[in-house]
Amino acid sequence: MKAVREKSGFICDMDGVIYHGDALLPKALEFVNWLEAEKKDYLFLTNNSQRSREELHQKLRRLGIEVDAMRFYTAALATASFLANQCPNGSAYVIGDAGLTNALYQAGFSMNDVDPDYVVVGETSSYSFEKVSHAINLVLAGARLVGTNPDLVLPMGHKRYPGCGSLIAPIELATGRQAYFMGKPNPLMIRHALRCLACTREETVFIGDSMETDIIAGINSEVDTALVLSGTTAKEDLDLYSYRPRYVLNSVGDILD
Predict the structure, then answer these.
(1) Any idea which GO molecular function terms this record carries (predicted)?
(2) Of 15, 117, 151, 224, which one is the catalytic site residue?
(3) Cα Rg of the chain, angstroms
(4) Residue pLDDT, tens place only, 37-73
(5) DSSP of 111-133, one letter per residue?
(6) Catalytic residue among 13, 97, 209, 224
(7) What span, in angstroms and rounded, lies between the C-alpha atoms of 171 and 177?
(8) Is the Cβ–Cβ distance between 226 and 249 less than 8 Å?
(9) Residue 13 annotated in active site
(10) Can 113 be counted among the known catalytic residues?
(11) Structural domain total, the chain
């Protein structure tokens, strides 16, 4: 663990690493306190596009962890940054919640349900047949299809909900167009996160609980990876993959021991 503790930058997934749903994981508070005490540069990363930085800040506060709102980076922010670079001052038809629409507004995008440059889909509880039908016709008319992340399932504690990959699938199938996904495992999201830190990739470690999103994204970004077994991946699952994390931890508490 000495090599991990000596890193200057820490990028941490949230669900499965810091908490499960609305329950803080053991040693998570001590780990965040250690990051602060050691003056580490750190960022919490999530594929979930529903919540804004401030909402994530409030969630951790309710769980007993106090960190600045700028310590959070979401797939919504990564998607907005990517689209603003691709099409400055563009427009989008959005199927998603406030975390996504606010990120797009802040990046200079306008909402457009007539002739948008993009149809953008993220996690949402306001999914409907009418919205999907409208999105299909906009894509067929020329709008480009973008998803915040390819996750098929959105875990919340012990429950499972449709992720962005599931919500965007009917649009892909009906139009014959493949969506571009910005969130993990796309290494661009990790590179965007690195720009928020004052560290190089060699000085940074990415901590996550999923081999299929977190670890492969870190490997493709050439950042050292640490898999924690406190989330979706069990130790016996490692043999199912042809790639390996640099470190395997029971939880973030191992870094402190």
Answers:
(1) phosphatase activity
(2) 15
(3) 18
(4) 999 999 999 999 999 999 999 999 999 999 999 999 9
(5) E-SSS-SEEEE---S---HHHHH
(6) 13
(7) 8
(8) yes
(9) yes
(10) no
(11) 2
